[in-house]
Amino acid sequence: MVVGECWPTMDLLRSEPMQLVQLIIPIESAHCSITYLGELGQFQFKDLNAEKSPFQRTYAAQMKRCGEMARKLRFFWEQMSKAGLFPSTKSVTSDDIDFDNLEVKLGELEAELIEMNANDEKLQQTYNELLEYKLVMQKAGEFFSSAQGRAAAKQRELEAHHSGEGSIDSPLLLEQEMITDPLKQVKLGFVSGLVPREKSMAFERILFRATRGNVFLKQSVVEDSVTDPVSGEKVEKNVFVVFYSGERAKNKILKICDAFGANRYPFTEDLGKQFQAITDVSGRLSELKTTIDVGQVHRSNLLRTIGYQFERWNFPVKKEKSIYHTLNMLSIDVTKKCLVAEGWCPVSATNQVHLLHFLIQNALQRATADTNSQIGTIIQVLQTKESPPTYFRTNKFTCAFQEIVDAYGVAKYQEANPGVYTVVTFPFLFAVMFGDWGHGICLLLATLYFIIMEKKFSSQKLGDIIEMTFGGRYVIMMMALFSIYTGLIYNEFFSVPFELFGPSAYDCRDLSCRDASTTGLIKVRATYPFGVDPKWHGTRSELPFLNSLKMKMSILLGVAQMNLGIVLSYFNAKFFGNDLNIRHQFVPQMIFLNSLFGYLSLLIIVKWCTGSKADLYHVMIYMFLSPTDDLGENQLFFGQKFLQIVLLLLAFVAVPWMLFPKPFLLKKQHEERHQGQSYGLLDSTDDPLEMELHDPHGHDEFEFSEVFVHQLIHTIEFVLGAVSNTASYLRLWALSLAHSELSSVFFDKVLLLAWGFNNVIILIIGIIVFICATVGVLLVMETLSAFLHALRLHWVEFQNKFYEGDGYKFCPFSFALLSEEDE
Q: Are the beta carbons of 161 and 222 closer than 8 angstroms?
C-alpha cells in the first residue's frame, strides 16, 4: 500500500462503519504521533479527562504558551486590518519552526508595535490639540478685533458729543461703562475653547442658569469637522469665548466646560502675542506632521514585514495549539511514561492507521535512541456498546444535500440516509411548484456562474446571503434543471406556451375561429407528444383543467414519497435485525396508507386512462359513510365496491395491529430473557432489539405503561399523519398554480400592456418593470417560498416515516479543518 492510495468507495445510504480504537503512546513520541494523526484527519479523540478543569490537565502550560502566541498574532491581524494591509497569500512553507525563538520574536514585535502605537497616539493627540488651539486663536482673534473696532468707533462717536476723555481699557464694555470713572470700571475675564456643536445649545443654557445670566457667551461655527484629541473621532465643533466677572463664576464655567467635554485653550488680547503664538503653533504643527508621517511609514513597513511572515507563523501556532489541546484529552498512565488515547475511526481507515503506526515508528527512530525508549505506539480495537458517530463521506455536490438532512437531525449510526433520495426528490418537488422553463434557465445561468467561478469565490470572504447561495450552488443547479423539465411539461416559458414538440392536437372548426370561445375546438391531430397542449393556454377551461391535473399529480407524488419513507423503515428494521418492527409497524402502516390513499391514487390513474367522469370526492367520502351502497355512474372498474369494503376493513384492522401487539410482545421478550436467559453469553446483548429493551437507567424493570403510551402516541400520529400529510402535498398544486398565475399577470398586465401603447418610452418602462417583477418576485421570493415548502415536505412528510435523526457527527482531529474552525 502507498500513502497516496485513494480511499475505498462508500455506500452513501448507510454511514461508514466505525470502530473504537485505543492508542498507547510513549510520552516522548506523543507529540509526533498526534501530529501524524492530525495530518491523516481520520481519528476522533474522546476526552478521557472530562472531569478535570483546563488548568489541571497535563499540558496546561503549553496550552497557555500557545494561547499567548495566538493572542499576539490576533493583535497583529487587527493592526494590519486597521492599516488596510493583508497577510501574504503565499503557501505556508513546511520548514520546522523553533517555537522558543518564535515566542521571543513575537514578543519583541508586539512590544515594538505597542510602543509605536503609543507614540503615534501621543503625537496625534498633541497635533489635534494644536490644531484646535490654532482654531481658537483665529476665531477668538476675530471676536476681539471686531469688538475692538466697534468699541473704537463708539468711542469716537462719544468724543464728538462729550468733551470728557473716556477709557477704552476693555473694548467690550457697555456705553454706560465707557463714560464712567476709570477707577470704577470692572475688568472682565474670559475662557475660550471648543465645544461639540450638538451640545452647544445645552452648553449655553446651563451657563446662563448657573451664573444667573452674569456671563456673555460668543460662539463661532467651525466649517470643517475637527478630530477630537481625546476620542480621536471627527466631531463638528464651535469655538466659544465666555466673558465673566469674579472667581466664583470662573469656577462654575470651568466645571461646566469639563462636564460638556469642551476643550479649553489660553488666549491673549495682545495682537502681537496672538500673531507670535499662531506662528509658533503653525511651526510646531508642521514639525509634528513630518514626525507622524515618518512614524506611519515605519509602522507600515513593520506591519508589511509581519504580514509577509504571518501565515508562516499563524498556521504552525494554531497547529501546535490543537496538538496540545488533543494531548490534554489523553489520560496519563500510572507509570507516567505512556499516554492512553481512545477515539473513533472509520473501518476503511484501519489500514491507514496501521500505516500511520509504521510512519510514526520511522519518524521517531532518533527520538527513541535519544530517550532509550524501547516501546512503540500500540494500537488495539476496543469492543463497546456506545453508539458510534455518524460519518458520510461527501463531495462538493452531495455536501449541500446532506446539510439539508443534517439540519433536521444527524442520522443515527448506520441508519438509512435520506440524503441519497434528497438529491433527486428535493429539486424535483421544488420544480413541481416552480415549473417554468424560462425561469429555470435564468436560475441555471445564475448558478452556472457560481460553479464556473467557484475556485475564485471559495478563496474569498463573501457576504452572508451570497455565501449561502454559493454553498448551495449545486442544489440550485439541480432545482433549475428540474424546473426546466417541469416547465416543458407545463409548456410555460414566462407563462407563454410554445409548440416545441409539434403542432397542437386541436384546431378551430373554421378559418375565422369565431366559435372557438363558445362551441370550442375540435381534435384534428394526434395527441401532443410531451406535456400540456399549448392550445389549453388562454381558454376558458385552462384553469379547471390545470387545477385537476396538478391536484391529482400532487396526491400521486405525495403517496409515492410517503410509501418510499415506509419502505425505508423496513430496510432500517431489517438492517438492525428488528423483526418486531417489520411485522407490527411496517406491514400495518403499508396496509393502512395504501388501503386509503393508495386506493385513491389507483382511482386517479384509472380515471386518467379510461377518461371516466366519475366523481372521486364522492367515491372516497361514501367509501366511509355508505360502503355497501351502489356506486352507479362513479364505478370505474368491475369489483370496485367489493374492493372498497376489503380495503376499508384492512384499514380498520391495521390500527389495532399497530397499537396492541408490540407492547405485549416486548414485555414477553423481556420476561423470557430475565427468566430463562439470565446467564446468557455476553455477546448475546449485541442484538439492537435487546439493547432497546434495557432500561435507560440500567434497571431491570420493564415499564409496560410507558411502552404502551409511547406506542399509542406513535399509532395516533401515523393515522392522523397519513391524512394530514397527504393533504400537505397539495401545496405542490397551490404553489404551482400561484407561480403560473403570477407569471401570467406580469406578462399580460405589464409587458403586453406596455407593448400596446406603441410608445418607445412606455415600452422601455414596461420592460424594466417586467424584469424587476420577474427577478424580485418570481426568481427570488417564489424560489425561496418553493424551497421552504420542499424542505417542509422532506422534513415532516417524508422523513418522519423512518428517520430518527438522533445521532452525532464524526468530527475527526484534522489540521485541514483548522482554518474553517478559526473562521
A: no
Q: What is the mean pLDDT of residues 380-400?
A: 90
Decide: 725 and 558 in contact? Cβ < 8 Å. Answer: yes
Between strands 237-244 and 189-196, the pairing is antiparallel
Mean pLDDT of 251-258: 90
Task: Identify residue 463 by its one-letter amino acid code.
Answer: G
Report which DSSP code applies to 595.
I
- pLDDT for 90 equals 61
> Is pLDDT of 215 > 50?
yes
The whole-number pLDDT of residue 459 equals 76
- For the chain, what percentages of helix, strand and coil (3-state, to nearest 5) are there? 65, 10, 30
> Nearest-CA neighbor of 40 among 367, 348, 364?
348
Closest CA to 187 of 264, 275, 265, 250: 250
| Position 520 confidence tier, pLDDT thresholds 50, 70, 90 | low
Taking CA atoms, 80 is separated from 119, 293, 299, 613, in Å, by 18, 17, 10, 76
For 753-799, the DSSP string reads: HHHTTT-HHHHHHHHHHHHHHIIIIIIIIHHHHHHHHHHHIIIIIIG
CA distances from 228 to 79, 105, 751 (A): 21, 35, 57
pLDDT, position 186: 58
Confidence of residue 3 (pLDDT cuts 50, 70, 90): very low
For 18, the enclosing helix (H) or strand (E) is strand 18-26
Sheet holding 263-265, edge to edge: 216-221, 237-244, 189-196, 263-265
| Phi, psi of 67, rounded to the nearest 5 degrees | -65, -35
Max Cα distance, the chain (Å): 137
What pLDDT, on a 0 to 100 scale, did the predictor assign at position 637? 87
CA–CA separation, 534 vs 758, rounded Å? 28
Helix spans in 527-598 (H): 542-575, 579-581, 587-593
CA dist list (Å): 662 to 565, 657, 720: 21, 8, 20
Residue 91 confidence (pLDDT): 52
C-alpha cell at 222: 467651525
Q: What is the pLDDT of residues 588-599, one digit of tens each?
A: 999 999 999 999
